[in-house]
Design goal:
binds acetyl coenzyme *A; 19 helices; 432 residues; 3 domains; Rubrerythrin, domain 2; 3-stranded antiparallel beta sheet; single chain; Cytochrome p450-Terp, domain 2; mainly alpha; 6% strand
Amino acid sequence: MANTATLHLDGKDIQFPVFTGSEGEKAIDIGKLRADTGYITYDDGFGNTGSCQSKITFIDGETGILRYRGYPIEQLAEHSNFIETSLLVMTGELPTCDERNNFSELLTQNAPLRQGLLRFIESFPRDAHPMAILSATMNALGAYYPHLSGINHQSDLGHFDEAAAIAISKVRTIAAHTYRVSKGLPFNYPKPKLGYCENFLHLMFSEPYAEFAPTPEVASALNLFLLLHADHEQNCSTSTVRMVASAGANLFASVSAGVNALWGPLHGGANMAVIEMLKNIHADGDDGTRFIAAAKTGKGDRLMGFGHRVYKNYDPRAKIIKASFYKALASLGIKDDPLLNIAMKLEECALNDEYFVQRKLYPNVDFYSGLIMRAIGIPENMFTVMFAIGRMPGWIAQWREVASNPKLKIYRPRQVYVGEPLREYVLSSLRK
Ligand code: ACO
């Protein structure tokens, strides 16, 4: 196979190297295009642009493949858990027992928040969006751990395990404390003996008079939700993290930028949109039939939580989370919930109706994860926060990949300027 691509431009042939990734993805290296020709490529939204070489996550959207560090998501979902998978994503290898235990110890040590951070969270208005608080507080960690937010990546990488544990452990405490403050409830201290997910649910829902103990099925559904969101290659928030990291920014500043990108409704908001849609259908006195009929005309609203930009045949994460969702529901004794009934109707129709089948519009991971969050009692405005907790190891891994690149260059895309051509300044007294 040719290892160059030829571009015929302005009467000349220019050769560019072609290379292939470890799963056969082909790329044309246009790194010298501008220097050699004066041209740049134009790719609105970067849909055809590989912004980096990465060893973390492989996705094949056509065949529904998702792998972290080479391991199929199905195997990780069956045998691993969120923390072990986080270590895999961040370090490249499944941890040994000692590595796993050491990291758990770091998570335990770093679960509480300094008093100043507690007060910082409490200083926001009660109705502030939790993503605003999460982003600000993750960024503020840089102020509390100056030895982890140095002036260059090399010094930060020397303390990588500690920084990663702080980010992964504290994101959960920050999220829970934000919720407690919004409800006017007292702070719960993390419990060293609890696992990551159980501890999060305790931080959220324990009361001074009653400790919250989730059913094993609920804890396991949450664990799976986080694991399935751990990374998803170069999406908007991940690309943001890498962009910020490329400027030499520390881990906390970089993941805080990721939180901001995820906050955008086109990115992290789909699971919330599912519940909004179900509520609207219910408020209209519809069981889903009218909504589906309208969606099929192309004029009504789309079915939120159906279809995917990348996964064109099925979303492998949805397949995995679906079973866990039903187990969690059964353990909570939830049977006849009106929104759930509508959701099941939509699911059934979409899986059997020719319109949806033909267009390969099946329920995606957000469809089930929105329903799981609701069943657990997570408020809707925290759904995106839950996504951020899950995505934290992926952002950290991507930050590390950028920070440890010896040939690192600051990311600097070009543009095609289409504004006004050169014009002369006009004094304000002469302007019409
Ligand atoms: N409900 C009803 N019809 C739909 C839906 C839907 N959710 N999604 C796509 N269609 C229809 C379109 O109207 C179009 O029909 P046509 O061929 O008759 O014109 C056809 O399916 C293809 O639509 P596209 O927009 O080209 O599909 P694309 O793959 O680009 O869109 C997307 C993917 C944006 C996710 C879309 O399916 C959607 O809007 N889903 C609902 C929102 C959602 O759940 N998003 C979470 C996914 S997260 C992510 O993708 C990053």
